[in-house]
Amino acid sequence: MGLAGVLFLFLAVLAVILGAVTVYAWRVGSRVESLAEHGKSELLAAQRSTAELNIDAALTHVDRAAGDFGLAEEELRKLEPFTALPYLGDQVRAATDLLTTGSLTVAAVDDALTAAKGVLDVIRETHGVREGITGTIPDPSRIFGSLTPEDKRAVLAALDREVPRLVSSLDKIDAALLSLDRIPQDEVLQPFAEAMDPLREQLAGMRLSLQAVLPAAEYLPPLLGYPEEKTYLLFFQNNTELRPTGGFLGVYGVLRVKDGELLSVDTDDIYALDGPSESADRPVPPDPIRKYIGIDKWYLRDANWSPDFTEAAEVMESFYVEEAQVVGGDLPAGGFDGIIAVTPKVASDVLGLIGPVTIDDRTFDADNLVDELEFQVERGFASEGIPMSERKDIVGHLFREMIDRVSSLSLQEIVAAIGLVHRNLEESHILINLKDPVLQRVALEQDWGGRLRTVRGDYLMVVDANLASLKSDPAVERRIAYLLLPDGTGGLVGQVEMTYSHHGGFDWKTTRYRTYTRVYLPAGSSLLSVEGAMENDRLKDPAGRPGQADVYTELGRTAFGAFISIEPGETRTLTFRFRPSPEVMSQLGTGRYILDVEKQPGTEAHGLTLDLDFGMNLTDADPVEERSDWGDTRYRQVTDLREDRHFEVSF
Questions:
Q1: pTM for this one?
Q2: Which residues touch 325 (CB under 8 Å, ≥6 apart)?
């Protein structure tokens, strides 16, 4: 046989071998695909059972899914000898990583469901039910409110025990995402590629849910008085009269909890303490309070002057203790376990969940809460013959009724309530400052404690303080613009513009808007000029003299402050021009720029516009610009401050 014949025979044999391998791989792949699809179906069935609170059935489906993925992995191992082959080896490795991701997902779901079962079993046992959570309870979802204090303690203890399992679940989701990221999406078969994005999205959603639930499971028991009773000083911050940490401190309360049971909550008008304290020695207030409100003593109602809640909370507690001693009020023997501040948005969101609440023939719902409550405590009380000193008692009555309703929520609604609280913590409508160092560390790590962020590069925070302009804030739209401009000498000039548009009129709750505005920047920023600042409003300063800017060094930052007043129907802009700090300029020299823009607590979603001209071409940015803005020296973004924002630019 000649050389050509040998070559032909070799190619024929190779073709037969490759054909056999292909057929074998196809058969194995088909079995793997069938098992994986069945496992996916079992996971979907587990999801449906979980939604129905049938945890036992859900765990059965998860166990079957684990079996399916395990068998699929065994089948796929039959193809390991062929991983060295081009193309086929890539597909085998991709399938292996996908199955690993599936198995980790199943294990994560199993951990989470087992943790849930551990808590639900305790609830079941307190009701004497032995056939499962949905067994013989007439209304199985509405049981938490009927638990005795001893039962609630047992539930909180179970929640505390299951924390390690939830941590394990989160770790496995992270591992699953890493496994998924190893797969080169552009090199695998289309079915593999099409499966990756939905799986990644589902895993990210699970991760987000666990990240919300885990802190609640880990820290809810001690916060709710397990195993020791807790006493909190509570402040209702009215953000219709905006102040640095969220709103005017109009109502305070003392709240005692033990084993998840609300032992007592006593609320009162802030003036019940401030009024009697007028004859006592008080500290001198910050200069803007003294100048624009016209008082020379610093009272509890103005205690939240620092925008950093960790500092403001100390002042709030200290002032409360001082003024409570003036009126002979009782103070907890061991001091308070924490300071909690909430805005009306939290109450509105809760009403959206539990439905309308009626107090003394007045119905409050998510839409009318702020206006209806404001009218009652400012005007309505007088026509009903309620003494001035009791006008805010309705706040306490409403709060207690809402707590009672929340304690009777269904388990599904409790999960929704946890999400509601988490969202308001994220948006700084709830701020907490805790004495327990472990809990406080977690609160700060989660950014729930209202401490200003660490300055990592460039930084901006705009803080308004409504000074004697009633409840005008809802009528005032704010837009913040931050600009960087080349100065022609190789440096930059920064500019912060706050534009206020007053869409209201003059009535019992709205008037001209008077605000002392502070802009916080990295330490070392130097003021060049201010435009739009006013000496006072048009009534107190008819000549309309321009105001000056104050410069502060506080909270590890440089701050500029100025007063501005906006009449109804008017739009005004307050502008600060400055030199960026040397640290910001040095960071630019490394080819990278970082900007954190922090929202003021209590605000909803101020408009934010960035127009940053660095004088050098951008190579990358996060978030990305609109495609039409690519290819120049400027970085532009239009967004809002519903939450803190982070930006990064590379050159």
A1: 0.82
A2: 331
